[in-house]
């Protein structure tokens, strides 16, 4: 039996991977202490409980100067060079072909080219029935991150997690 999740974590994970099995796209904006990692872990567990593969991508602070560095391992057979569209299409095809969920953590640290690939995949997710969960910290002045939020917020409001309340910490 799976451990009981704190209510906030369970609610947001349910938005990311609904019980209905329908594809969903969810953006989560949270400061570092708000529990986004727990939500991601719960969403990944929900996917795996349903027999779905999970393709994970995490932004890395020190890798921001490596164009396509974040997505390179997700589509290793692709020789797309510097073409965002080719990387986007290869990644979307991999997601759609295997019925996998795409989980992006710390998107604020993705290199610019990889972030544009993620935005492109998210823009086509609804049409292709893709499941996407993206987390990032609040950032101002990043046009690509704002574009990602706009895309993810089309069908479902972004989830903004604030610091945990005393009762949530106890839970």
Question: Quick gist of this model?
Answer:
The protein has 171 residues and is an alpha/beta fold. The protein has 6 helices and 5 strands, in the order αβαβαβαβαβα. The protein has helices spanning 7-16, 36-49, 84-98, 112-128, 143-152, 166-170, and strands spanning 25-29, 54-58, 101-105, 131-136, 159-160.
Account of the protein in words:
It is a single chain. The protein has 171 residues and is an alpha/beta fold. The protein contains 6 helices and 5 strands; from the N terminus they run H-E-H-E-H-E-H-E-H-E-H. Strands 2-3-4-1-5 form a 5-stranded parallel beta sheet, with helices on both faces. Helix 1 (7-16) crosses helix 2 (36-49), helix 3 (84-98) packs across helix 4 (112-128) and helix 4 (112-128) packs parallel to helix 5. The model has no long low-confidence stretch (mean pLDDT 83).
Question: Which features would summarize this protein structure in a list?
Answer:
171 residues; 6 helices; alpha/beta; globular; five-stranded parallel β-sheet; single chain; 5 strands; 13% strand
How does the SSE layout of this entry go?
Layout lengths: L6 H10 L8 E5 L6 H14 L4 E5 L25 H15 L2 E5 L6 H17 L2 E6 L6 H10 L6 E2 L5 H5 L1
Helix pairs in contact: 1-2, 3-4, 4-5
Largest sheet descriptor: 5 strands, parallel
Number of contiguous helices = 6
- Inertia-based shape: globular
Q: How much beta, percentage-wise?
A: 5-15%
Low-confidence stretches: none
Reading side by side through the largest sheet, how are the strands ordered? Answer: 2-3-4-1-5
Structural class, judged by helices and strands?
alpha/beta
Please state the CA-atom Rg, rounded to the nearest Å.
16 Å
Helix-strand string: HEHEHEHEHEH
Distance between the termini: 18 Å
Number of strands: 5
Mean pLDDT: 83
Percent helix range: 40-55%
